[in-house]
Amino acid sequence: MIISPVVYGRDNDINGDKIDGYPVILDDQTLFKIQAPTGSFSPEERANTITTRLEKFAEDNSLSIESIKLETQENITSIIAEDKILATLTEEDANAARKSRQELAEEYLEIIKTSISQFREERTLIARIFSLIWTVIATLSLLLIFKLMDLIFPKIFTLLESWKDTVIPSCRIQNVNLISSSQVTDSLIGFIKLIRVIIVLLILFLYVPFILSFFPLTRKISKQIFEYIFKAILYISESVVDYIPNIFMIGLIAVSTYYIIRFSKFVFRELERGNITIPGFYQDWATPTYNIIQFLIIALAAVIVFPYLPGFNSPAFQGISVFLGILFSLGSTSAVANTVGGIILIYTRAFQLGDRVQIDDIIGDIEDKTLLVTRIRTPKNVIVTLPNATVLNSNVVNFSASARETGIPLIICTTITLGYDVPWRKVHQVLLAAADATDSLLKDPQPFVLQTSLDDFYVSYELNVYTDKTRKLFYIYSDLHQNIQDQCNEADIEILSPHYSALRDGNQNTIPANYLPKDYQVPGFKIEKM
Question: For 328-349, what is each residue's pLDDT tens digit?
Answer without folding.
Answer: 666 566 777 777 887 888 788 8
